[in-house]
Amino acid sequence: MELEYKFARPDEGLVLSDGACVAGYASLFGAPDQGGDVVEPGAYGAGLARLARAGERVRMLWQHDPREVIGVWDEVREDARGLFVKGRILTGVARGREAVALVEAGAIDGLSIGYRTLRATRDGKGLRRLAELELREVSLVTFPMLTGARVGAKAGHDPGAAFRLLSGALHEARALLRREDDEGERA
């Protein structure tokens, strides 16, 4: 089974506090992403339980690169909105220091999940409904797939916020146009 990636820009954003502590939603339930996938509530539960029983944890990576572990997720859980994560970027690691600086500056504003699909169905609208996933990692990324909202640093004025909001809207519009083109070709 091939590892898949799903990118998210959570509604609350990725909050950076106490220097390197981060928290936010890595996945939102019921929201179609640019690839036409919708994560269903409960999709992570069984996989997270299996990881806990095995004494393993979801990894915090930089841009999905398994050679670039930048921190630890201390909390990974489902709630009514989606997959909530809370952890620490390790500033004792060079890439961790870079990640903190980039998140603080607003240059990096996305979260992305790396997972395997265990159970999914297609609905009548062409969406793939992901019912059970095996979550392996949550990465900080440049280009998120789910453009629900922007991710930013907690403190201070963010001069890039308007640009990121516009960029997210353009990515979402492009995905919708692609989906309409694909549906038109099938008809």
Structure description:
The chain is an alpha+beta fold and 187 residues long. It has helices spanning 45-53, 94-105, 161-186; strands spanning 4-8, 15-17, 21-28, 37-39, 59-62, 65-78, 82-89, 110-122, 128-141. Strands 1, 2, 3, 4, 5, 6, 7, 8 and 9 form a nine-stranded mixed β-sheet that branches.
Give the overall shape: globular
- Low-confidence runs: 8-12, 148-166
Number of helices: 3
Give me the strand/helix succession. EEEEHEEEHEEH
Computed over alpha carbons, the radius of gyration is: 16 Å
The counted number of beta strands is: 9
- Characterize the largest beta sheet: strand count, sense, and whether it forms a barrel: 9 strands, mixed
Mean pLDDT: 80
Q: Name the beta content range.
A: 35-45%
Q: Classify the secondary structure makeup into a structural class.
A: alpha+beta
Q: What is the CA–CA distance across the termini?
A: 31 Å
**Helical proportion, percent range:** 25-40%
Topology of this structure?
Elements: E1 4-8, E2 15-17, E3 21-28, E4 37-39, H1 45-53, E5 59-62, E6 65-78, E7 82-89, H2 94-105, E8 110-122, E9 128-141, H3 161-186
From the structure above, extract its key features.
single chain, 187 residues, alpha+beta, nine-stranded mixed beta sheet, 3 helices, 9 strands, 25% helix, globular
Short synopsis of the structure:
The protein is an alpha+beta fold and 187 residues long. Helices cover 25% and strands 39% of the residues.
